[in-house]
User: Which sequence fits this backbone?
């Protein structure tokens, strides 16, 4: 073929591709044409560390205020309770720092929260952690987290606290990560420290939500969390198991790269595994003794890394979903891995036993920082996985057909949605907190649909446990 004819042919192919892409963008289905909007309400900004809870017929979530700027402080830095049927804000709970001191503080953002009956737990970016009685509308206690004066952002409480009984007194205590420091466990009744474990001096570490599971068979939940190591010069990232009684290190597991993703516990019959994603492309499966089981190597088709900030999500049939959030455009997207019958290959370049790439599919879709939810979203024939993108699409993946549907949202989001019947109409709702500051409530079409994983950290105590089908 002559040189110029070949060039013209390539140009024609490119034009056809661009036309098809433009047609796709113009024809993209609006989310409201499939899931009608029930209400929306302004609550400010949320992040991938935010969880949305349903408790006592109210929606609860924390807000970063009107902007994600870390030096900003406004009236929307708070925890909100919201009417499930109307979207009306019922209550706004803010930091209990005297107004004179607030002026000296840079930020009072709230991310993860927990609710245990009448007790609300939440922390702020200024390092204060609170227990609040939602029935009597009063603060029960507050605690100032450890920090380093010469390193910015250390002491922030960013992740979701975990509510669990550590001191075996019959009442729940609370455990949370402290940015740039480590893990704190507090007495749930008094707020006094049960123990504090300092593990790092790096302000990029311990932004995640801990996981609590008994790893040493003493019937007391232990604490799983991690981040960059204790010295700022040693860039090794570790996942730790800390003794629930005293905070001492039981074991540590080398991740190799950073940790922004929160660990979850997966149970399948008698078998249990800790599942956690390291920042550079790898999803690790680890047993309760801290030993490597296998991993997913999710480098992008281009060979570039997948920046994994979300927590992994699975269906009951072991279909795993996690988004990539590192680049921009179609370099990021959604990873799906059907693990039920997947083969395990030999060690990869990191020395990990790796799931066969044949089990994995990548869907280009822009940055995904939110964790996915799993339920009967469109029909009851199979499980579907739903997750928003930062660009402004809702992606819905069907486990059986292995097809992905895309719906245009009013704005992008990095907050994990809530999938639940929030108003008692026997139909599910999907709540999405978006970058435009609004919380949107969409109605789903199916009556008596099931939910497998409907929120970030799985329940209001943030215990992050998924129970899969046993063979």
Assistant:
């Amino acid at each position: 073929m002559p040189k110029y004819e070949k060039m013209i042919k390539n140009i024609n192919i490119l034009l056809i591709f661009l036309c098809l892409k433009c047609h796709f963008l113009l024809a993209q289905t609006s989310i409201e044409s499939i899931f009608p909007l029930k209400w929306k309400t302004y609550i400010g900004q949320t992040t991938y560390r935010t969880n949305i809870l349903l408790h006592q017929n109210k929606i609860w979530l924390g807000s970063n205020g009107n902007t994600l700027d870390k030096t900003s402080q406004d009236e929307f830095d708070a925890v909100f309770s919201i009417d499930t049927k109307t979207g009306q804000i019922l209550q706004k709970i803010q930091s209990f720092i005297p107004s004179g001191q607030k002026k000296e503080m840079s930020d009072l953002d709230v991310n993860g929260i927990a609710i245990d009956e009448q007790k609300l737990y939440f922390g702020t970016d200024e390092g204060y952690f609170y227990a609040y009685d939602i029935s009597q509308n009063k603060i029960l206690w507050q605690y100032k987290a450890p920090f380093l004066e010469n390193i910015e952002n250390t002491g922030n409480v960013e992740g979701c606290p975990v509510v669990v009984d550590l001191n075996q007194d019959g009442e729940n205590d609370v455990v949370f990560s402290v940015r740039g420091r480590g893990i704190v466990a507090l007495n749930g009744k008094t707020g006094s420290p049960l123990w504090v474990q300092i593990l790092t001096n790096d302000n990029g570490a311990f932004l995640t939500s801990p996981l609590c599971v008994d790893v040493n068979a003493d019937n007391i939940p232990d604490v799983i969390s991690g981040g960059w190591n204790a010295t700022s010069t040693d860039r090794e990232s570790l996942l730790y198991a800390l003794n629930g009684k005293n905070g001492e290190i039981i074991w540590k597991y080398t991740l190799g790269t950073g940790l922004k993703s929160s660990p979850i516990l997966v149970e399948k019959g008698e078998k249990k595994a800790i599942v956690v994603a390291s920042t550079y492309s790898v999803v690790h499966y680890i047993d309760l003794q801290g030993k490597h089981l296998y991993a997913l190597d999710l480098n992008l088709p281009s060979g570039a890394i997948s920046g994994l900030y979300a927590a992994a999500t699975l269906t009951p049939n072991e279909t795993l979903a996690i988004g990539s959030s590192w680049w921009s455009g179609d370099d990021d997207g959604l990873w799906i891995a059907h693990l039920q019958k997947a083969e395990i290959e030999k060690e990869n370049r990191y020395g990990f036993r790796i799931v066969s790439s044949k089990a994995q599919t990548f869907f280009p879709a822009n940055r995904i920082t939110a964790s996915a939810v799993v339920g009967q979203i469109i029909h009851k024939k199979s499980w579907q996985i739903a997750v928003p993108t930062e660009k402004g699409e809702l992606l819905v993946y069907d486990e059986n057909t292995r097809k992905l549907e895309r719906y245009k949202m009013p704005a992008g989001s990095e907050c994990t949605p809530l999938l639940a019947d929030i108003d008692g109409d026997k139909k599910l709702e999907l709540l999405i907190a978006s970058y435009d500051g609004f919380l949107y409530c969409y109605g789903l079409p199916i009556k008596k649909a099931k939910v497998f994983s409907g929120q970030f950290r799985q329940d209001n105590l943030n215990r992050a446990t998924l129970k899969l089908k046993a063979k």
Remarks:
- The mean pLDDT is 90.
